[in-house]
Write a structure and sequence with these properties.
By secondary structure, this protein is of the alpha+beta class. It contains 9 helices and 12 strands. The protein has 2 domains: about 140 residues, 2-Layer Sandwich (60s Ribosomal Protein L30, Chain: A); about 160 residues, Alpha-Beta Complex (Phosphoribosyl-aminoimidazole Synthetase, Chain A, domain 2), CATH 3.90.650. The structure holds adenosine-5'-diphosphate and magnesium ion.
């Protein structure tokens, strides 16, 4: 069973239950409109030892930051401001007090940086391996919330940063090279918190999500939920230094924003973004009416069996 096949089965099983005002499964966050023009956002992400990290290849501080960063990224992906988190930890006997304190220092450091409160959680013993679950809450003006389902034909597809560094870093780590700059990038994702809020406030931005499983996989979520297609130009994908094109397109955990914007206002958007953040929004393709993903190389369609990165899959 694939991760997404399982999630689909969950959605079907629970479809008849009351939504109680929530817009639930299917986006980076669930949405609860508060009735005053604002909404609360909810997201949860889990990191488990041996699947998401190797204890010997990461410091506790980095792990504390990363556990929070990946959740802040999902709030940013909706155009929201992160406001609070719940943190649940399952720690095995072998984890020292010093390790746990260092983990919390990292978690605190990033919480402080973004002004996010820690409002609860759970702590328990684990029989094997460390498991970390974070639930993050965000707030946004309802009009600023960006969904995966709002891409329109003619939209320009942008990514808000270079891709592939994290995937290349993971390759280094799996080869036992923990000390490389790419490995450090894999362990230290930078969620685009300010960028997400700024893009949320721009009306010409239609759909948005964060790239956690790789462009090749994640863009399909926008296409499915928006009932559109896309053409992606391979030569336009911004490949991070030290990575290659396939890793940039298929590697996971870059946590850069992926968005679509009105084609007639895309250039002005990119110019305003550059003015505000000092870096580019990279246009990588166009949304189309044909319900398929087409890879282009210099404008010519190319058949590629590229998929993203799935933690759930046995490798
Ligand atoms: P992301 O990568 O942004 O964290 P995913 O692609 O992992 O999101 O998940 C897709 C959607 O499925 C999200 O809305 C998420 O909340 C939901 N989801 C994932 N796992 C479960 C689960 N076990 N039960 C209910 N919803 C889930
Ligand atoms: Mg996400």
């Amino acid at each position: 069973m694939t991760e997404f096949g399982f999630i689909d089965s969950i959605v079907r099983r629970f479809a008849a239950l009351p939504a109680n005002g929530f817009e639930g499964i299917g986006d980076d966050c669930a949405i609860l409109p508060l009735g005053d023009g604002t909404a609360l956002l909810f997201t949860a992400d889990l990191l488990t030892e041996g699947v998401h990290f190797l204890r010997e290849a990461t410091s506790a501080r980095e792990l504390g930051r990363k556990a929070l960063a990946v959740n802040l990224s999902d709030v940013a992906a909706m155009g929201g401001r992160p406001v609070a988190t719940l943190l649940s930890l399952a720690l095995p006997e072998g984890v020292s007090e010093a390790w746990a304190q260092e983990f919390m220092e990292g978690y605190h450091e990033l919480s402080e940086r973004y002004g996010v409160a820690l409002i609860g959680g759970d702590t328990t013993r684990s029989s094997a391996g460390i498991t970390i679950n974070v639930t993050a809450l965000g707030r946004a003006d309802e009009a600023h919330v960006k969904r995966r389902s709002d891409a329109r034909p003619g939209d320009v597809i942008f990514v808000a940063g270079e891709l592939g560094a994290s995937g290349a870093g993971l390759r280094d780590i799996l080869a036992g090279h923990y000390g490389t700059p790419l490995a450090a990038q894999h362990r230290n994702p930078a969620p685009q918190v300010e960028e997400g809020q700024w893009l949320g406030a721009r009306r010409e931005v239609h759909a948005m999500m964060d790239l956690s499983d790789g462009l090749a996989s994640d863009i399909r979520h926008i296409l499915d939920r928006s009932e559109v297609g896309a053409q992606v130009e391979l030569t336009r994908i911004p490949v991070a230094e030290g990575a290659d094109l396939q890793t940039a397109a298929c590697g996971g955990e870059d946590y850069k924003l992926l968005l679509t914007a009105d084609g007639t206002r895309a250039e002005a958007l990119a110019a305003a973004y550059r003015e505000r953040f000092g870096g580019p929004l990279y246009p990588v393709g166009r949304i189309t009416t044909a319900h398929e993903l087409v890879w282009l190389r210099n404008g010519t369609p190319e058949t590629l069996d590229w998929h993203g990165f799935e933690h759930f899959k046995k490798r």
